Amino acid sequence: MNVRLSAEVKEALSARRAVAALETSVVAHGLPPPHNAQAARSCEEAVRRGGAVPAAIAVMEGEVRVGLTAAQMERLADPNQNPCKLACRDLAAAIALRSTGGTTVSATCAIAAAAGIRVFATGGIGGVHRGFPPLLDISQDLWAVSRFPVAVVCAGAKSVLDVPKTFEALEAFGIPVIGVGTSELPAFYSADSGLALDWRVENAVEAARILTARLDSLRHGGMIFAVPPPRETAIPGAEVEALIASALQVAADRGIRGAALTPFLLGELVRSSGGKTLAANLGLLVKNAAFAGELARADADLRAARS
């Protein structure tokens, strides 16, 4: 895959310094303006505080970009520009047809791996949707994380999904899920899911050692570091479930399904919660980005010590 690196990202990768990737689907479709552009800036700042160079990833007029300018990010954040939502399967068409769009977890993993970036921060991964079966609705994210050698820092799977089934699917795909300061899988807006994790770390140095063992020693695919959302913005699980049940009914009444479902549900949750889910989403995005910066820095330090 041909990618165009920003000057800062190119220099950092050439010098084997820490770089952490950021997805842009959350900017193009996941958050309403002006919160989407502000979230992008806040996540980049958080990565820098963690000790790494941020590398936001997108496709701009058919060109795969790793590291965006402020103007490019503003374009993705503008709904009037109609940016595409690009999963891994969409990349070939987007490149050939010179489209512009934000990348989801699956596309960002693929591009980050092609660029040689080992750490990536997002809000929550996709997974098994509610209503499975009979509708076989499973996100490409799971396949992508299992295939590409990238550590994904997230707050678990999005709450609008079937989190227990997603957890089982992660095991089936052979994707290790490591808790960061927790022994329970976070549930995006909530810290509690009731799903116990087998492994946990307390800091980025411990996480980097696991990343090294998986990517370098074993040469396996990606993995997940699950970070609980900030306590000050987290929402109790029971409250989230009630909000989701109502949002799902609205979606069913309007016939919304497929790729349009998750963005609709996230928007409906913001409305019905009076903005509480938006605050939770913004909080966890920044927290995940900060840990990704720390992890990228710790990984770079380990590799430097071995060379």
What can you tell me about this protein's structure?
The structure is a single chain. With 307 residues, the chain is α/β, with parallel strands linked by helices. The protein has a single domain (4-227, 285-306), classed as Indigoidine synthase domain (Indigoidine synthase fold). 48% of the residues lie in helices and 14% in strands. α7 (140-147) links the parallel β7 (119-121) and β8. α3 (35-49) packs parallel to α12 and α9 (204-217) packs across α12. The radius of gyration is 18 Å and the shape is globular.
CATH topology: Indigoidine synthase fold
What class would the helix/strand composition place it in? Answer: alpha/beta
Q: Indicate the mean pLDDT.
A: 95
As a percent range, the share of strand residues is 5-15%
CATH homologous superfamily title: Indigoidine synthase domain
Measured on Cα atoms, how large is the radius of gyration?
A: 18 Å
Multimeric organization: single chain
CATH architecture: 3-Layer(aba) Sandwich
- Helix-residue proportion: 40-55%
Largest sheet composition: 11 strands, mixed
Distance between the termini: 27 Å
Q: How many beta-strand runs? A: 11
CATH top-level class: Alpha Beta
Helix count from the secondary structure assignment: 12
